[in-house]
Amino acid sequence: SYTAHPHWWNHAEPVWVTAEKNGLRTGMYWWDGCQVEIRGSRPSTCIPYRGYWQWPTVENDTKSALSEIVEKFKQNTLDFALVYYEAVDAVGHASGPDSMERREALKSADNVIKHLLDEAKRQNIRDQLSLIVVSDHGMTDTRPEKFDLIDIEPHIDANDLHSMLDGGSFVMLRPYPDKINKVYSKLKSLNMKGLNVFRKEELPDLYHLKETHLTQPIVLTADPGYQIKKLQGTDKQVPQSNKIYNGNHGYDPMKLEDMRAIFLATGPGLKQGFQNGPVRMVDHYNVICRQLGIKPLENSGSQDNVQGMFVGGASGSSTAVSLSLLVVPNILLAARSYLYH
To answer: What architecture (CATH level 2) is domain 148-256?
Structure first.
């Protein structure tokens, strides 16, 4: 698959690689990327990603994996686990975020988390367990009657493009080098309602996109209530699918609260019943490293944003082992906590 190509990964060091380099045994379950050797390292255990819609036994299989993870924690043969549970995301796209089907998917995620905690209690390691539940995005209602469609195809020449990447809320255009100015100027001059047109270097710092080599020369974003139509009459559209989801994401989280994600954490050294202020996704990394007892690499996260959730502040310590279970928007991160002083 495309995600197996090392060029997506080698410009940064994922936390599981850092954990392995620090002697922690990491297990990754259905977590895309675990199949890739990154900077000479792989996780100790890798169960490759499996699509939700082709997997009718996903809930029971995930529970079985969690039982196995807890057993390995108990036997001291595993230190850090990352588990991807796709139900909430997949069903949210298909049926919409406010649908009964999505509520059933949330119940499924609850069942999975409850099973993990029950197993940890049964194995007498509940007090040693760090559990972090996060999501990589929110979800908003994008049923056809809920938005207006922006069609740029009549206004540009597809022959000027190498490719148009995706559609909906966020699009990247890759014009041929001598056509960048032409395409940008034309789209900018349209002043289309709901459409934002950026050169790569004009992107807001909030997006953390203008420095990466993966960002294409022109980026289009849609305001809430709008979606960008994919190109129809050309092979320049990637991917080719014209499907419009009933639930979607990718909008600016500062404009639409539905885009905001979740962060829940419990474990040694973490305050109980504490509600932290807003954190950014880049702040998760420092929390994970602290619960694992490893020194974080230089990163874009802020320790100030998360230190209030720790007993004794950022300098507090714990002696447990951290199981990380990621549920994206159902990711469970679980680890036995080896927190440093």
So the answer is: 2-Layer Sandwich (3.30)
Strands 237-238 and 161-165, by their bridges, are: parallel
| Rg of the Cα atoms in the chain | 21
pLDDT in tens, 124-165: 999 999 999 999 999 999 999 999 999 999 999 999 999 999
Residue 217 burial by Cβ neighbours in a 10 Å radius (0-12, 13-18, 19+): buried
Buried b (16+ CB within 10 A) or exposed e, 269-278: bbeeeeebee
Domain 2-136+261-333, CATH 3.40.720.10 — does that match?
yes
Both tokens of residue 308?
Answer: 């209030």
Judged against a pLDDT cut of 80, whether residue 332 lies above it is answered with: no
In this structure, the strands spanning 140-141 and 161-165 are unpaired
* Domains in the chain: boundaries: 2-136+261-333, 148-256
161 membership: H or E segment, kind and range: strand 161-165
Do the domains at 2-136+261-333 and 148-256 have one common CATH topology? no
Q: What is the mean pLDDT of residues 265-278?
A: 94
pTM equals 0.90
